[in-house]
Amino acid sequence: MKFYKEIAKYYDQIAAQYGAHENAYDYVRATSNLKSFINGVFILEVGCGTGNLSIDLARSGYTVVGMDSSQEMLNEAKSKLTPDLNVKFYCQDIRDLDLPYKFETIIVYESVFALIHTRETFLVESYLLNDEEITESLRKLKAQLKAGGRLIIDIRNPRDPGRRLKFGKDLVYRVEVEQEGKNFLHITHMIEKNEKLLLKESVEKYIFPLEKFEIALEKAGFEIVGLEKHKEFFIAARK
């Protein structure tokens, strides 16, 4: 998943501006809502990006490991660390996940998996592009959990493609989404300055029904708890 390279240095600015409009990327609120579902104090955040949620969890007293496949995003995360924060960051792809720890809770927030709540149903969106990769990656997560540990995945509303979001000095961020067949999205993130393209990064994503994800979770050995907290989090507890 070679993504979030050039855009990494702009990510927090975009997230802050986007959050002001959509009540998204509110990591303090996310931490507060997560507390009632977190098992224990040792947490892995998968797809931690620039580290905002990991750091806020650490400020709340948790011991946190953040993992992301983008070294550029992790460089931004590490720049925020202070000596009082009990956080470590690792650059790994979820498909090759192998950390020297067992965790009590694993959180996937706005990253490798995201549940999308539409009017009709729930869909799952992932950077992993086939069923085999998804099941094997879930097995990797299960292997990193202590007995009785929890996997928590966030639920969000669909993005608003085509929106132009102003941020920084004369910068504009926008996203284009193209449907490719029934199960794939081609998503292009662009930053413009003074109406000229500054950078562009694209990624493919796989979308599929929640029921299919539930089957993959069960194949990987998770016991599904279900949807919780006003449909903000999906929890799968390890048996």
Describe the structure.
There is one protein chain. The longest helix is centred in the middle third of the chain and has 13 residues, at about 130-145. The mean pLDDT is about 85. A hairpin with a 4-residue loop joins strand 5 and strand 6 (about 120-125). With about 240 residues, the protein is α/β, with parallel strands linked by helices. Strands 1, 2, 3, 4, 5, 6, 7, 8, 9, 10, 11, 12 and 13 form a 13-stranded mixed β-sheet that branches. The chain has a single domain, classed as Rossmann fold (3-Layer(aba) Sandwich), CATH 3.40.50. The chain has six helices and 13 strands. Helix 2 crosses helix 3 (about 50-60) and helix 5 (about 130-145) crosses helix 6.
CATH C-level? Alpha Beta
Q: Total strand count, please? A: 13
Largest sheet: 13 strands, mixed
CATH architecture: 3-Layer(aba) Sandwich
CATH topology: Rossmann fold
Helix content: 10-25%
Structural class: alpha/beta
Shape type: globular
Provide mean pLDDT, rounded: 87
State the end-to-end distance: 30 Å
Q: What is the fourth-level CATH superfamily?
A: Vaccinia Virus protein VP39
Number of helices: 6
Poorly predicted runs are: none
